[in-house]
Amino acid sequence: MICEVIVDIAHSEVDKIFDYVCDVPAEAGARVDVPFGRSAATGFVMRVKETSGYPAEKLKKIYRVEQGTPAINAECLSLARAIARRYRVPLALSLRLFLPPEMRRGKVSETYRTFARFSEDVLIKNAPQQAACLAYLKEHGETDAARLREQFGSAVNALVKKGGILLEKRRVLRDPYKGMEDRAAEHVLTSAQQRAVRAVEGTEKTVTLLHGVTGSGKTEVYLTLIADALKAGRTAIFLVPEISLTPQMLSQLRARFGSAAAILHSGLSAGERFDEWQRLREGSARIAIGARSAVFAPVENVGVIVIDEEHDGSYSSETAPRYNTFDIALLRATHNGCKLVLGSATPAVETYKRALDGEFALVRMPDRVNARPLPDVTLVDMRREVKRGNPSPFSAALRERLAATLAEGQQAILFLNRRGYSQTVLCRDCGYTAKCEQCDVSLTYHSEENCLKCHYCGARYKMLEACPACGGRHIYYAGTGTQRVVGELKKLYPSARILRMDNDTTNGKEGHYRILKQFSERQADILVGTQMVAKGHDFPLVTLVGILDADMSLHFPDYRSNERTFQLVTQVAGRSGRGKERGDVILQTYDPDNAILRFAAAYDYEGFYRHEVNMRAATMFPPFALIVRVMVSSADDKAALEALRGVYGALQELYAQHPEEFLFFNRMHAPIKRIQGKYRYQVLMRLVSKSLLERIYDAASAQTFRDALVWVEENPSNLS
Ligand code: ADP
Ligand code: ZN
């Protein structure tokens, strides 16, 4: 038998299929050890066949074939091929997506335990412990030997000697969720939830967009769809932003599905993650739950795929292959003939457009469960606070409401939009922000050159000394960090218990998980944080949300900044008033007349969408155009420039042939010229359609450059 093998070395020069002879049974997808060059390598069987096109004496023999269920199933193998082709990455690299990293590194230890089981009745004289032990085993069946010894001591070994007990050592899978207190199980579906479930299951379309306001009970809809898939004998994939895998969410899933759910999240140890993956592959777990990488879960016969908070930026991978989770999920849904559900209170503009255009089914859940009201949003004009001589990050209105919340024993979340800070330039007197004359995106301050730059066209502008609109001199470059906010809070409310959640406090294995758990267990009164606090958390005691700087992300140099701001404000506001008590939101801004903030404060998604989609159409930004960036990076500036020249030359040919496809085409330094010692350049393009995309990938991957990396980004969310 001949096996076509791909060696697990992600380099384009060895990205070829090699034929090997195999004398033991092997299946496609199995891991193998093979001789490769002068040493050995691991690889995967891509195909099994009878004969090879190469002469038999030239073929080498496979050393070892991993037994058991193949590591990668047939569907995933073909998916890996499709990904390698689509994103022009070596097959070895795309195959890695389908394996837990710890498996490749060979570092996971398997755990074994010994079990005791009744074998036969043996003679027992004057040994009541032995008699009791045997009776226990007869009644309870197989028992963990260590536990049995705790209970019956040396009687166990005596019985083993006599042959009354049989011991067996077996591999066991770690269960990271053991002992997790199970929260009340399923709700009776509301009629809106029932309607949503029926709509998803009834539509002929593969994809359904579930547009439900925060607190409308989308989770219960997903869980019902998943339960229905299991009932039909199928499996399910449930994708959430990593941050949403809160302790409450985990115990809810556990309560509902028990060990049928395999939950993959960053809080697990390598061994635990490996075992969860193993349970899916072997079929003992049938629901894969996790962040974007769970879309590659080794499940078969998938009955439904859910992408919760579909607008979330974490669904695009920022390392090679730079896949979009939706695209992969759609391939899997099509392959399995199952439904793909996208859920959000604030769908991405592109997603919503596709739904309105009829490509996706659209289901709306416009009300909160039990007709709970959405919280009232109050816009506070921070320019007035500055004029009144209030330099603190908190407006008078926020301080008042915060004091009341603490007095009533309820919880508050304060949200700080740090992403925008330290980059955007803002006049604190009038709210003016500097924008590019060509691109209608905000400029970014570059401290090392002391200038302003447009990240879309590369234009440079002089630094502002005074505001061009009002002449004011309170120009703002760097803002309040979460740390400073916590410091000020402590001064104002010395007895309040405050938790901080941002990139600095969420490192390490447990990260945000621990903080969210503390907050949900009421060990704190105020949670201060960045984007992380905005996600789908359900804290029923939170009745106040303060958004300290709503407009900061409006001016982020990204064509999606309006969309991001609307989503952020809506999401973070949605954390308030989810329990019995009514909630409030205080939204502080330097731009209280801003249309996007007004739409968000009124929960007017449709209004926002129309406003935004018209603007994108007029300015020719996605989804009406495609932004493509070809990146070049190298530790050696000369090598980077040489690669840039090569890539740019190839792209220039395309440009010359199809100038009508290009709205913009230029090469330049990347906005951040050097990251981790690597010099960075880019060719930036805005295209009217996707028709040249394949050829751009071709051009970017046609040559390999010494010491330089070249990659392609489609509608990148991060243009640094
Ligand atoms: P969303 O994901 O749409 O923001 P959730 O799924 O978190 O909303 O639900 C909001 C709240 O409503 C949760 O506290 C949840 O437990 C509760 N809930 C959901 N469905 C029901 C139901 N059918 N009956 C009662 N409470 C429900
Ligand atoms: Zn510009």
Question: Could you please describe the fold and organization of this structure?
Answer:
The chain contains 21 helices and 31 strands. The protein has 720 residues and is of the alpha/beta class. It has 5 domains: 103 residues, GIY-YIG endonuclease; 62 residues, Arc Repressor Mutant, subunit A, CATH 1.10.10; 179 residues, 3-Layer(aba) Sandwich (Rossmann fold); 184 residues, 3-Layer(aba) Sandwich (Rossmann fold); 89 residues, Alpha-Beta Plaits, CATH 3.30.70.590. The strands form 7 sheets. It has a 7-stranded parallel sheet with strand order 12-13-11-14-15-10-16, with helices on both faces. It has a 6-stranded mixed sheet with strand order 5-2-1-4-3-6, with no helix packed on it. It has a 6-stranded parallel sheet with strand order 17-27-26-18-25-24, with helices on both faces. A hairpin with a 2-residue loop joins β29 and β30. α7 crosses α8, α17 runs parallel beside α18 and α20 runs antiparallel to α21. The protein is globular. The two termini are 51 Å apart. 45% of the residues are buried. The mean pLDDT is 88. It binds adenosine-5'-diphosphate and zinc ion (ZN). The site of adenosine-5'-diphosphate (ADP) has 17 residues, from α8.
Notable traits:
binds adenosine-5'-diphosphate; GIY-YIG endonuclease; Arc Repressor Mutant, subunit A; globular; six-stranded mixed β-sheet; 32% helix; Rossmann fold; 21 helices; 720 residues; seven-stranded parallel β-sheet; binds zinc ion; alpha/beta
Please mark out the parts with pLDDT under 50 across 5 or more consecutive residues, or reply none. Answer: none
SS elements, strand count: 31
Q: What count of helical segments does DSSP give?
A: 21
Portion of residues in beta strands equals: 15-25%
Instruction: Tell me the name of the CATH homologous superfamily of the largest domain.
Output: P-loop containing nucleotide triphosphate hydrolases
Helix content: 25-40%
Structural class: alpha/beta
Give the overall form.
globular
Distance between the termini: 51 Å
- State mean pLDDT (0 to 100 scale): 88
Order of adjacent strands in the largest pleated sheet: 12-13-11-14-15-10-16
Any idea what the CATH architecture of the largest domain is?
A: 3-Layer(aba) Sandwich
Rg of Cα set: 29 Å
Task: Fill in the CATH topology of the largest domain.
Answer: Rossmann fold
The structural domain count equals 5
Bound molecules: adenosine-5'-diphosphate, zinc ion
User: What is the CATH C level class of the largest domain, in words?
Assistant: Alpha Beta
